[in-house]
Amino acid sequence: MYALAINDLVKRYPTGTEALKGVSLAIEEGEFYGLLGPNGAGKSTLIHCTTGLAQPTSGSIEVFGHDAVHHYGDARLAVGLAPQEPNLDWFLTIEESLDFHGGYFGMTRKDRKERATELLDAFSLTDKRHEKTRFLSGGMKRRLILARALMHRPRLLILDEPTAGVDVELRLELWHYVQRINQEGTTILLTTHYLEEAEQLCNKIAFINGGEIVATGTSAELAAEY
Ligand code: ADP
Ligand code: ADP
C-alpha cells in the first residue's frame, strides 16, 4: 500500500484550462517526495485535489488505501496540509491555534494539550505560545504552520511551496525542521519551484510541467539526465 497513489488524474477548470492532463505518481511510506515545476505547472491543483479542496475531473487518488476523491472523510485523518499562504487565525494565540486545529480533527482535550506541548517544544515556540499569531515574525508563522499541520499526527504531510518568498536563512531553518519530521517517520510530499530545494530534501523527485509529469527519479538520476 502506498502513502499516496495517484492514477491518471485529470483536472479541467470551468474556464477550460486543463491543469492536470493525466498525472500518475506513487509515494511509498517514509519517502520525502518532491513535486518540482515552474509556476502554472499544476502543483497546487494536484494538492487541492489530494486534500479534498477540489474535485478532479477524472482519475483516482488513494491515501493509505483510502479513496480521497469520493470519500475524502476516510483520507482526511491521514493527511496534514501546510498551505502556501500562511492562513493563520489572526485572533488566536499560537497555543489556541494548535488547540483549535486539534479539535477540528476530533482530538480529545487531554490529547490536544499533550500534543501541543510536544510541538511547541519541537518548533521552539513554547516561549511565544500566548502571542497572537498576527504579531509573529515570518519564521515563527512558518513554524506554526508546520506544527499545526502535524497536530493530529498525520501519516502524510503535504507542504505546498513551504519556502516560497522566504530569505535564505529562514529557508535553511525550515529545511532542518522538515527533514527532522521525515526522519521521525512522516511521509512528505513537497511542492517547489526550486531545483535546489528538491535536490537537498527529497529522495524522489517528479518534474511536472504543463499539467504532465515529464520525468521521475532520484535526485542523482535526474541530475545525470539533465
Ligand atoms: P502551480 O501550483 O504549479 O503554479 P496551478 O495548479 O496553480 O499551478 O495552476 C495550473 C494551471 O491551472 C494554470 O494554468 C492556472 O492558471 C490554472 N488554474 C489554477 N487554478 C485555477 C482556477 N481556479 N480556475 C481556472 N484556472 C486555474
Ligand atoms: P481557512 O480558514 O483559511 O479557510 P481551512 O479552514 O480550509 O482554512 O484550513 C485550516 C487548516 O486546516 C489548513 O491550513 C490546513 O492546515 C488544515 N486543512 C484544511 N483542509 C485540510 C485537508 N483537506 N486535509 C488536511 N488538513 C487540512
Automatic annotation (TrEMBL):
<dbReference type="GO" id="GO:0005524">
    <property type="term" value="F:ATP binding"/>
</dbReference>
<dbReference type="InterPro" id="IPR003439">
    <property type="entry name" value="ABC_transporter-like_ATP-bd"/>
</dbReference>
<dbReference type="InterPro" id="IPR050763">
    <property type="entry name" value="ABC_transporter_ATP-binding"/>
</dbReference>
<protein>
    <submittedName>
        <fullName>ABC-2 type transport system ATP-binding protein</fullName>
    </submittedName>
</protein>
<dbReference type="GO" id="GO:0016887">
    <property type="term" value="F:ATP hydrolysis activity"/>
</dbReference>
<dbReference type="InterPro" id="IPR003593">
    <property type="entry name" value="AAA+_ATPase"/>
</dbReference>
<dbReference type="GO" id="GO:0046677">
    <property type="term" value="P:response to antibiotic"/>
</dbReference>
<keyword id="KW-0046">Antibiotic resistance</keyword>
<dbReference type="GO" id="GO:0005886">
    <property type="term" value="C:plasma membrane"/>
</dbReference>
<keyword id="KW-0067">ATP-binding</keyword>
<dbReference type="Pfam" id="PF00005">
    <property type="entry name" value="ABC_tran"/>
</dbReference>
<dbReference type="InterPro" id="IPR027417">
    <property type="entry name" value="P-loop_NTPase"/>
</dbReference>
<dbReference type="InterPro" id="IPR017871">
    <property type="entry name" value="ABC_transporter-like_CS"/>
</dbReference>
<keyword id="KW-0547">Nucleotide-binding</keyword>
<keyword id="KW-0813">Transport</keyword>
<feature type="domain" description="ABC transporter">
    <location>
        <begin position="4"/>
        <end position="226"/>
    </location>
</feature>
